[in-house]
Design brief:
This protein is of the alpha+beta class. 45% of the residues lie in helices and 12% in strands. Strand 2 and strand 3 form a beta hairpin.
Length: 327
Amino acid sequence: MHQELLKATATALPTISIPGARVEPLAETGGSDRRYFRIHLVSEESLIVMEYTDQRPDNLKFIPASKMLAKIGNSIPEILHHDSVHKRIWLEDLGNRHLWDYREAPWSKRRRLYKAAIDEISILHSFNCDQLNASEESALEPPFDEALYNWEQDYFFEHFLGNYSRRAPSYIGSLRHEEEFSILAKGLAALPTSLVHRDFQSQNILLRDGRPYIIDYQGLRFGLPAYDIAALLHDPYAPMEEHHREELINYAFRENHTSQWHSSFNRCAAQRLMQALGAYAMLANNTGKVHFLQYIPTALESLRTILEKEVILPRLLPYLSDEAISV
């Protein structure tokens, strides 16, 4: 397998010296079906190879999304070669330090890195989407609309509550039809949109020399900037203290920090955390990636905290208590 990959690399990048190179499979920690390899060259340089499938439609959006982000001015790994026949992409190696790796660093360091990440995603959020042509728009994933928000909620009900609620299925079914969920979906869908990453969390931000680079961005679409910021600041992979989160919320929305922005952030956070809980449960139960179960308590506590301080989903809150959930 590794020799075949080295041979393919020699064909894809003929100026690179392959003799003596070695292949290092990279650990799979995420929920995708992609595989990554680091090729160590004798020159002590290295590059990354991503292998993907067409089982997930968003995998096919990686190349057009890369071109779009490069046009916008975001920092991403450089694409060195794309073999669409064998579904391989050779990428610049930016190292293996993610924002996630600094989750236990002193807040003075974390603050700086998070602000840099917010500045980087703000480049995407502030892009004038009128500059996109029809071909570029068609290459995006389907936008966040009422239907997609409803799908995320269904995902949460099916995989999380369906597996871990102590309440009877009839109660869960009745809860799903409560108007508060459609109000949340309709309210979010009515807000102005921009381009968003869709999964902007600590493991999707690489750091090199303190500079953030966005990765895993094939889900690029129209949506709410507050959804991306909520994904980052309510990231169960890298939890933070509430007063630190508030500091970063104020920074992210410093140019338009109104009560409306704060409310939209909390609604986006509730929506995002429901999606995350559904994803962790699905990955653990349907694909055997049981390590995702460790993130459920943090995500659940974050969702409860949001719903306790703001009236968003009052009927859901009792279903999230320790007595009502068994993981």
